[in-house]
Amino acid sequence: MRLAKLLATAGVASRRAAELIVRDGRVAVDGETVIDPAFDVAGAEGVSVDGRPLAVRVPRVVYAVNKPRGVVSTARDPQRRPTVVSLVGSSLRLYPVGRLDIDVTGLILLTNDGELAHALTHPSFEVPRTYRAVVARPPVREAALRALRSGVELEDGRTAPAQARRLAADTIELTIHEGRKRQVKRMCDAVGHPVRSLERIAFGPLRLGDLAPGAHRRLSAAEVRALRLSLARRSGRRGRDASSSGSRRPPAG
Ligand code: URA
Fold it and tell me: Which domains does the chain have, with CATH numbers?
């Protein structure tokens, strides 16, 4: 990040005023005075203004992105394919909350809040994820839906109970509480309906809504609170389950 931008983000001054502060020789990086406002810094560490270390409060942000097909859900890609992070283009260090396969579209969250990302993807919180799957070999019959609901046997173990309903002869809406690799595709395969296309339409309390493919929006403070609240409720429920059964459930997946 540019040095002047860092100072502005830290609340030292406006961007323009921060440039002057740097040019005036009042800013040091690792003990050396720097007078170039565009000097590249990784973060606040080692930066001082008038001899005082900079205390930066980097804002915690969460974005919802509608991932298009062909975009990878990692922060960086060695093969230089487009990433979900590049769709937002923030100067903050964002990373995706969990993963979607490259051919899967829909809602993915990005954040610079490591603790929140960790909790949202930790199997023990069982955050619900809802997918819309268009499948082969229609029509999807009640027996297949029942199997999806009660759990199907996969090579890494039986899946937890899910919600499944038919939206059309070849379209299912499926809510799962685990985040195993290619889970929905493997579940649909297991009941005889390979997935043709898959879209995530909800993650925890958040819905994809009318966000266009490739578009993003920053979550409001109320939405982030709702995310945190859903985690707190889940951890409360887990605590009650554990004390009533006398044991803790092992993490899913
Ligand atoms: N299930 C899948 O099969 N793929 C995903 O990307 C997410 C869920």
Answer: 3-53 (3.10.290.10), 62-207 (3.30.2350.10)
